[in-house]
């Protein structure tokens, strides 16, 4: 059998456009495959601009703390494609990890045969393959992350999920979803289903109104942050409160104030699911959660060795202005607790608002060192990205690689480094580190 990488290369040639939002091709291939989407474990469907993966990670960690098994579908991957398909049950072992190469290659080959050479995007056919895999492994839950948008996303073929979640929405992918935040919100709200509860993280009021109108048309009950539930930090603890009561919990293991909202959305979702997950399990899930490249500290490996001695290094894949805001806020909190000069090493895709991302770091970062993302055609050149950083008010220079950028940072004082701007750059760093996210 051909390797999954070879099959993926063939499948990528089936459609001239990598992104072409439609459900017609997805319905066609699922019919040819015998409708695996109808044989999935109970689904929680997650859309939003930022925080989807973190929210899914909290839900997985919390449910597994009491012995439930949750499959997880996320994108993009960081190091290997297999990361997109995480299985809860393999041979009877809960939480066993990513799909095996053998099963992934077999599922992709089956989808390739069923598709018969017809046009289909790479995300659509790989989502069909994921559904095949998930349908063949028992689990208590499938945490299904939207790829792009919601209404016409390939994942939006599940007729009756247990619940839907909409994480914070902001401007991103405007060329596909619309050039106003209301249009983007309309696309994201397309995952709502008739009578199915939707948990909504904190949103701008104009976004909230769009979601409320969509929910009213579908009689979908809403549970909205700041109205129906609250997740706040008090005395170094996370306090969650809703109509069912109050929980006093440890702070999330994942760093940043925005993680309070992501964890809160996960807890609020659990309140609407038919699973018995008590406060102790929620607390354990908060402490055990893992989600790579989301303010991930790096403490060993080639990246650390390339940096000045004693440097504190963080890795994050955030890539839009809203992500820049939450990252800058998190780094400002670190600065308050432990002052160090902050240096950014950044690479981004040309489809992103680079100046908007950098703007939040004005006055916080001492310097930005821009780098190209290796083997990514859509990467900004380092010089062009440095110009965007300068337009945002930051001091910027260029380097040929992450390692060169680290080697050129000042020595002789403890510094803080944030490697940021793209999940593709984050994946490149993790490959250098020779680690596969778990």
From TrEMBL:
Keyword Nucleotide-binding: yes
InterPro entries assigned: Folylpolyglutamate_synth, Folylpolyglutamate_synth_CS, Mur-like_cat_sf, Mur_ligase_C, Mur_ligase_C_dom_sf, Mur_ligase_cen
Domain Mur ligase C-terminal: 307-422
Names of required cofactors: Mg(2+)
The keyword DNA-binding belongs to this UniProt entry's keyword annotation: no
Assigned keywords, A-Z: ATP-binding, Folate biosynthesis, Ligase, Magnesium, Metal-binding, Nucleotide-binding
Any Pfam family hit: Mur_ligase_C
EC number: 6.3.2.12, 6.3.2.17
Domain of life: Bacteria
Function: Functions in two distinct reactions of the de novo folate biosynthetic pathway. Catalyzes the addition of a glutamate residue to dihydropteroate (7,8-dihydropteroate or H2Pte) to form dihydrofolate (7,8-dihydrofolate monoglutamate or H2Pte-Glu). Also catalyzes successive additions of L-glutamate to tetrahydrofolate or 10-formyltetrahydrofolate or 5,10-methylenetetrahydrofolate, leading to folylpolyglutamate derivatives.
UniProt-recorded name of the protein: Dihydrofolate synthase/folylpolyglutamate synthase
Naturally occurring in which organism (per UniProt): Microbaculum marinum
């Amino acid at each position: 059998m051909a390797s999954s990488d070879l099959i993926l290369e063939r499948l990528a040639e089936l459609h001239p456009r990598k992104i072409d939002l439609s459900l017609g091709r997805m319905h066609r291939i699922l019919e040819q495959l015998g409708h695996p989407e109808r044989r999935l474990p109970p689904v929680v469907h997650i859309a939003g601009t930022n925080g989807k993966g973190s929210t899914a990670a909290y839900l997985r960690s919390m449910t597994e703390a009491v012995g439930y098994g949750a499959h997880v579908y996320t994108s993009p991957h960081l190091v290997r494609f297999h990361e997109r398909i995480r299985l809860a049950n393999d041979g009877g072992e809960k939480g066993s990890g990513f799909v095996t190469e053998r099963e992934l290659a077999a599922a992709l080959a089956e989808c390739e045969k069923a598709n018969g050479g017809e046009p289909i995007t790479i995300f659509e056919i790989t989502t069909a393959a994921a559904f095949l895999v998930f349908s063949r492994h028992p689990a208590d839950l499938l945490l299904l992350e939207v790829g792009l948008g919601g209404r016409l996303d390939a994942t939006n073929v599940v007729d009756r999920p247990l619940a839907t979640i909409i994480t914070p929405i902001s401007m991103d992918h405007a060329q596909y979803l619309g050039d106003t935040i209301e249009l983007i919100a309309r696309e994201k709200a397309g995952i709502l289903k008739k009578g199915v509860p939707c948990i909504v993280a904190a949103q701008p009021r104009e976004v909230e109104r769009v979601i409320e109108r969509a929910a009213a048309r579908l009689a979908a009950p809403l549970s909205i942050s700041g109205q129906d539930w609250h997740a706040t930090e008090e005395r170094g603890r996370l306090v969650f409160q809703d109509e069912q009561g109050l929980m006093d919990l440890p702070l999330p293991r994942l760093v940043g104030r925005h993680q309070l909202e992501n964890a809160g959305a996960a807890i609020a979702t659990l309140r609407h699911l038919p699973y018995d997950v008590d406060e102790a399990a929620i607390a354990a899930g908060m402490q055990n959660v893992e989600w790579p490249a989301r303010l991930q500290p790096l403490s060993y490996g080639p990246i650390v060795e390339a940096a000045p001695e004693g440097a504190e290094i963080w890795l994050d894949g955030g890539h839009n202005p809203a992500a820049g805001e939450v990252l800058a806020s998190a780094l400002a909190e670190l600065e308050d607790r432990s002052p160090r000069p902050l240096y950014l090493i950044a690479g981004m895709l040309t489809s992103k608002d680079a100046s908007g991302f950098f703007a939040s770091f004005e006055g916080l970062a001492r310097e930005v060192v821009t780098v190209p993302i290796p083997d990514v055609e859509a990467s900004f050149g380092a010089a062009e990205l440095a110009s965007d950083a300068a337009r945002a008010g930051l001091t910027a220079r260029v380097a040929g690689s992450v390692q060169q950028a680290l080697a050129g940072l000042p020595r002789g004082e403890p510094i803080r480094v944030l490697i940021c701007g793209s999940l593709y750059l984050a994946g490149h760093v993790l490959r250098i580190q020779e680690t596969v996210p778990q």
